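If you are new to this repository, start here. Below is one unmodified record pulled from the training split, so you can see the exact layout before writing a loader.
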Amino acid sequence: MTSDDKKPGFFRELLSDFGALAAMLRDSFKKRYPVTPGWTLFGITVALVYIINPFDIVPDAILFFGAIDDAAVAALELALIRKDLRKYRKWRDDQKVS
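And here is the target side for that same chain:
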């Protein structure tokens, strides 16, 4: 197996997903990528509100544990929209070729 064949590590993949998510949102709001499902945008919005809000299931004031539930919500949302992120990445790569 060459170094090009290696799968990215968990954190590298997570960072890549967050980057693709930010780019997908930017392109969606600028109407360059109009195929983002409404439920995906709704889920992202709910997750962001939950993460930003300091008054959630485990308050952020409780060190460490307050961040765990926020991380779990972010991971769950990324898992739910992984298919949409794959479609977006394919669209973005196709745009670069054109």
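Two things worth knowing about this chain: Residues 10-29 form the longest helix (20 residues). Residues 11 and 83 are 19 Å apart (CA to CA).
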